[in-house]
Design a protein that fits this description.
about 325 residues; alpha+beta; 16 strands; single chain; about 20% helix; 6-stranded antiparallel β-sheet; globular
Length: about 325
């Protein structure tokens, strides 16, 4: 019987005839023919080289990733920031004669992006790094706070100089910010892994310590080394050169704190560890504003010396 083509099912398992199943074969021919009559070898086929190309790209990607990791782990990206005042300019400021004239500090408060903070003016005050807790009954005392950080074994982190004495702290490249003080008490801040300012302090009875960067020339670091929310503090410089000690009223991330400082108008800011660790200040009328927390800290550290020196601001007119 003659099979009607329309009766053939496309399903190979339910065919109506006995013809063998044929598998279509597709071939692609190249119009490029060898001129020497020889058959092309595998090396002339780009597809044959594809595994080698993929492997090369993979190796390159691994190398770039390794470089990126090294670039970030040592904190070098923070060094890319520069302060609004160069090291050379800071050196010139420290070399000039400085005469402290302020009798105390002015307190002002504000809030930016939901970050509430207090600002204490530092202009006209005499700064120093001191190894002992200051006496709050001393009428020359205006402010004091922590400076450099230290490891659990009490070894200092970063270069520290106190009154011309160099202390061999363990270097840390992720703390390129610095605070430098002249022998007459002038304070400058900057960002640099060079030790020009530290060397100057050592040679001229000055002081110096390193900390994290919060702001450099109005820009934030690409990353922050500390995470979580705690009370934060910083020493910042405005575009007009005025310096302030800034503390948050609440717990904040480093990013939120730095971003608020930038929005407020600060150009440079060096992180001060410990937040408002010593809530004490003396105003311009000579009135001391104290807190019970200071007494608690005095009780705790009465017979001990802080592992890192404290940054102390005094009034030269009330000595």
């Amino acid at each position: 019987m003659k099979t009607d083509p329309s009766m053939i099912d496309i399903d190979d398992e339910n065919r109506y005839d006995d013809r063998p199943v044929e598998v279509p074969v597709f071939s692609i021919e190249s119009s490029d023919k060898p001129t020497d009559g020889k058959t092309p070898t595998a090396t002339t086929n780009p597809v044959g080289r594809m595994p080698y190309i993929i492997a090369a790209f993979a190796i390159l990607a691994l190398i770039l990733f390794a470089v990126w990791m090294m670039f970030n782990l040592d904190g070098s990206r923070e060094q890319q920031l520069s302060s609004s005042v160069t090291d050379k300019e800071n050196l010139e400021l420290l070399k000039k004669e400085y005469s402290p004239v302020a009798e105390g500090t002015t307190l002002s408060s504000d809030s930016v992006f939901g970050v509430a903070f207090d600002m204490y003016s530092l202009d006209g005050l005499k700064a120093s790094l001191e190894r002992e807790l200051p006496d709050t009954t001393d009428k020359s005392l205006v402010l004091f706070m922590r400076s450099a950080d230290y490891h659990p074994d009490n070894s200092l982190i970063g270069t520290v100089v106190t009154d011309g004495e160099m202390h061999n702290g363990k270097e840390s490249k992720n703390r390129p910010a610095y605070v430098a003080i002249s022998k007459t008490g002038k304070t400058v801040i900057g960002i640099s892994l060079d030790n020009d300012l530290a060397d100057f302090a050592e040679d001229n009875n000055g002081s110096f310590f390193r900390q994290f960067v919060l702001l450099g020339n109005g820009e934030l670091p690409s990353k922050f080394s500390l995470h979580g929310k705690v009370e934060r503090a910083a020493i910042g410089r405005m575009a007009d050169g005025k310096m302030y000690y800034v503390t948050t009223r609440h717990r904040e991330t480093m990013y939120d704190f730095a971003d608020a400082l930038r929005e407020y108008g600060f150009m440079d800011a060096v992180y001060i560890t410990g937040g408002n660790g010593y809530p004490f200040y003396r105003d311009k009328d000579g009135i001391a504003h104290n807190s019970s927390l200071v007494a608690e800290k005095y009780s705790k550290y009465r017979d001990t010396v802080p592992p890192a020196p404290l940054l102390v601001f005094r009034s030269a007119t009330r000595e």
